[in-house]
Design a protein that fits this description.
The chain is built from 5 helices and no strands. The protein has 128 residues and is mostly helical.
Length: 128
Amino acid sequence: MLGSHRADLDLRFPRQPSSGATSPADHPQHLRRILEHTVAPVFAVASSALWLPTRGSRAEAFARQVAMYLAHIGLGLSQRRIARLFARDRSTVAHACALIEDRRDSALLDRSLDLLEGALRLVSPRPV
């Protein structure tokens, strides 16, 4: 869960020397891990469900849409890069982002997304 105590889990991006600094967008496995550990537990879906080639259940599809939205808004990734990360079309990512943005009218979802964005900022290697 969002408030679980997993001291053994260090999601922070390894710091690189300034001359060879890399961004998390260059490391898809790291991005996947960040999104899995941030989104999947909150929406009670398996981490692997975010990467299914099929839609999956309604809850899995929604969690995937949230993960795509957070990758775009919270991590600052382009929709094209997110599409490659999730093995989806860019228009699917655009649809997910628009859908989640529209659903932020719900106070509960809006607060949840705010908290998730904050969690992503904590593990992101750069200010977002």
